[in-house]
Amino acid sequence: MLNFLLAAALAQAVAAPPAAAALPSDPLPADWVAVPDDELLVFTLANGHSFTVRLASRYAPVHVANIRKLAAAQWWDAGTSVYRLQDNYVAQWGDATEKKPLAAGVVETPPAEYSHAGPTTVARLAQRDPYSEWAGYSRDGWPLAGNGATEWLPHCYGMVGVARDLAPSTGSGAELYTVIGHSPRALDRNIAVVGRVIDGIEWLSSLPRGTGDLGFYTTAGERSPIVSARLASALPAAARPHFEYRRADNPRFIAWIASRENRSGPFFTVPAGGADICAALPPVRKAP
Amino acid sequence: MLNFLLAAALAQAVAAPPAAAALPSDPLPADWVAVPDDELLVFTLANGHSFTVRLASRYAPVHVANIRKLAAAQWWDAGTSVYRLQDNYVAQWGDATEKKPLAAGVVETPPAEYSHAGPTTVARLAQRDPYSEWAGYSRDGWPLAGNGATEWLPHCYGMVGVARDLAPSTGSGAELYTVIGHSPRALDRNIAVVGRVIDGIEWLSSLPRGTGDLGFYTTAGERSPIVSARLASALPAAARPHFEYRRADNPRFIAWIASRENRSGPFFTVPAGGADICAALPPVRKAP
């Protein structure tokens, strides 16, 4: 009973309220909008599991253009793997040897798309956090943090960044990582964030941790080979995955934010009075 | 090369500076102090791996007394398991059936040790976060958050809490969980936090995610059986693990905090200007 009730109470912490409840924070059916096919990149591992990245083409256009070219060239389909798992930090994948030539047309030294002119938020959290003056939401499902009119994609759990060399290198986009622990916001504005794992992150976060320095696997046999990476738009229509983001430009979303900032119900006796953006990531779901 | 340099740069984000570097944030040898044997609780899984919890006896005395009694009675040695793995949230363990009688002397309804009178901090972070007016450090290696003179142990990655029923239940301490994702600070002041996993959390965080609601395993066969839980003080001297916390009551620690708030070095071009307590957890290490 304890587990069940705890589970039921904690459900409030991880999922939208049930559709049956007529809460001010409940979305309307029209609040769910399809993620465009060319923003969905599906990586499939040799073990048969896959994970899907939504690409942030608006915020990191040159890096995302690179990633699309690499996917079109089927660059990740041979010789790549998940080669680094550092606990409470990142899973990283690509070509562990870094010897594989990039695909034609890939910009090897993209500009530092670490932040951009904004704001593009349509809703914001009530309180600041130590990493930015404000944090909030784009209309279409992206978390954003900012100082004044400059904004950026924050390093939250599941966000995808581009591994890079020392500054001013930016990385091409061939080597990617996602956050699998407490959100390392100190990386904000220091690395290009290009997307978010919106499905299947458990196939990365539950991989064995690497025993080498910083979680790199010490032998090739420990790596998880990648067998393909495909944009949904490159798949036959019948094979395309479908995901939806929740629009943020409406009073229901504002009520949802408030519900995250002050949890209610029989489990919570002390509401926090605030939330950080990584604890209130915009809802995304598989299309029903 | 890219990976290596990224790795080297990110090392600053996860480890203390190398001992060779004479930085103001470098600890003196005497800054490392042994964790008392009766604060170390070692759980061993049937797969041979183990993880160690440091118990916060000062901040949750009744719950920790319960946990010590359960360990002394070898309560976890039979019929218990890690039975819940919810991605980006918690790993939970104990008696999945909740039928097993508790050990003699265990207080079934402890007081709500969710916060306490303070402050007991000797150092603080520069900026507040959305969850508390301030956050900082006890002298002896505990992270703390607080409003005014009331303080509590925050729900950071690796912190251990007591699963409970709906309020005003508090849970006995037989069913425990640890955070394996972005720190769910909304739980602060709503659950008793009784410790921190200071070693071996990767054997929890890399377990397969449960496919039932909220990450509960749907079959008994998916659970990871626990074969023993022992206080270090109950082990033969030669078999005891030894860990050390870094004292926080000195200028070197203050400099360490500053180094976490504003990362430097050739990798970081934009310092954050702040850190949240869960991104700057007090250093703990195995005794050299």
Automatic annotation (TrEMBL), chains A, B:
Question: Could you tell me which Pfam families the record lists for this protein?
Answer: Pro_isomerase
Q: What are the GO MF terms of this UniProt record?
A: peptidyl-prolyl cis-trans isomerase activity
Would I find Chloroplast among this entry's keywords? no
Query: What are the residue boundaries of the PPIase cyclophilin-type domain, all occurrences included?
Result: 49-211
Name the record gives this protein: Peptidylprolyl isomerase
From which source organism is this entry?
Answer: Sphingomonas aurantiaca
List the signal peptide residues: 1-21
Please verify whether the record's keywords include Isomerase. yes
Q: Which UniProt keywords apply?
A: Isomerase, Signal
Q: Which superkingdom heads the taxonomic lineage of this protein's source?
A: Bacteria
